[in-house]
Amino acid sequence: MPRLSVNVDHIATLREARRSKEPDPVTAALLAELGGAKGITVHLREDRRHIQERDLELLREVIKTKLDLEMGLSEGAVKIALRIHPELATLVPEKREEVTTEGGLDLSKPNLSRLEEVISLLHEGKILVSLFINPTPDSVKKAHKLGADFVELHTGLYAEAKNPLEVSTEIEKIAGAAILAKKLGMGVNAGHGLNYQNVEKVCLIREIEEFSIGHSIIARACLVGIREAVQEMIRLIEQ
Ligand code: PXP
Q: What residue numbers bound the domain in which 123 lies?
């Protein structure tokens, strides 16, 4: 049975929109665990647009499942990971100007030596490493060669597929990459753009151990919670 790790970044996005204390991503993480999440994912971005270092420290202390830290390859990010010691560090490409992570890691030659360096530093710190990659055989083989413990297969193109042919092509790519990764001895996670409409098909790929899902869950949470929140305020106003 695949597990769900809930990405709580966008709770912090909302908080940072007001530079206030709420909503608190740590509280959201605990509620996600109460709801059955088997892990909590956060991305400590270089520009700190949502999750802050303090959130990470608090999450490390209070969550009872496991922490998946998505991170870029900068020296600062590695230092923080070694101090916080997440159960899993997922290496992702990071550009300041992007709205969200765009595509898997660039595994072309110029980037390999930095990746190798970061993986070995994290391994020395006894942290398991996952590489967020596009679902291609070449990327899977390169991740294996780099010594990754896990791959996280990028499901963004599947999520954006516009017709049934594109959907089945993307599913086949993800399934092929998952099978190969598993055969090479790596764990297989997947994520990006998964929602209540499209998750079912990727769940049929038995090799995938864990799904990392954020935006759709936080978006749904805002809407399913709105009635109760309004009723609470009306009770205060009308008492
Ligand atoms: N996996 C990775 C590596 C990501 O960067 C993200 C987005 O932060 C996700 C999964 C979750 O994507 P979404 O928010 O679209 O569910």
A: 3-238
